[in-house]
Amino acid sequence: MLVIPAIDLRDGRCVRLVQGERSSEIVYSAEPVKMAKEWEDKGASYLHLVDLDGAFTGTPQNLDIVQEIVQAIQIPVQLGGGIRSYDVVKEVLDLGVERVVLGTAAILSEQLLLQCLQDFGEQIAVGIDGRDGMVAIEGWESTVEITVYELSQKIAASGVKRIVFTDTRRDGTLRGPNIEATKKIAEVSGLKVIASGGVSCVEDLYKLKGLEEYGVDGVIMGKALYSGAVHLKEALEILEG
Question: Which of 198, 195, 187, 194 minimizes the C-alpha distance to 223?
């Protein structure tokens, strides 16, 4: 099971938000490229990048920094946030990003998702962001009338192989991940799932490790790592060791 440090980009900096609220921003580094290299040096084998400006505006705003990160490190990265057209998907992949995480676009445009899957295959994942069981979109600022479980089944039928599931009520809160929902999504979809949101301590990692048999093969960690609640070394030992 992969440990995947998150780098959330806003105004060119590495930040964290609580439950996606813009007003809750905490800046952890003004040098996200340096941060990416630091996670790589500490043993991470994959990084999760989010363009928060893109998520809020609908168009990526930090691709220059994404490109710098890709060029500065050897490990692969995935990127989400504001990627809502075929041309932008291609642009991002051409930068050297390993995997694009489609959220709002995949939910609102099945045609776009199918076209991207046809041309880019497993370089496309779908981000399912849940709020009280329903699907949140557009930077988590609105929801659609479909449950995260219904959407995961629909996504599986389209040919997607991987889901990134985030419980937005847990993200950035250090309240613990939504184990039950993560397990259910993996079970009903039959897809590979990366869990995201809420990891607060090493006990949470052991709980997530128990979901590996259901298809959960990665854990995105943000605030827990940046705050020191969990150290990357111990997370790697528990999940990858």
Answer: 198
pLDDT at position 169: 82
Cα 124 to chain centroid distance, Å, stands at: 12
- Helix (H) and strand (E) counts for the chain? 11, 12
**Is 8 annotated in the active site?**
yes
**Residue 87 designated active-site:** no
For the cut 80, the answer to whether the pLDDT of residue 24 exceeds it is: no
Domains of the chain: 2-239 (3.20.20.70)
Q: Active site residue: 129, 167, 171, 204, which one?
A: 129
Residues 106-110 have a mean pLDDT of 87
Single out the catalytic residue among 8, 51, 53, 167: 8
Q: What angle do CA 212, 178, 228 make, to 5 degrees?
A: 85
Query: How many Å apart are CA 172 and CA 117, to the nearest integer?
Result: 30
**Tens digits of residue pLDDT in 120-155:** 999 999 999 888 888 888 766 667 788 999 999 999
Q: What pLDDT is recorded for position 141?
A: 66
Cα separation of the two ends of the chain: 9
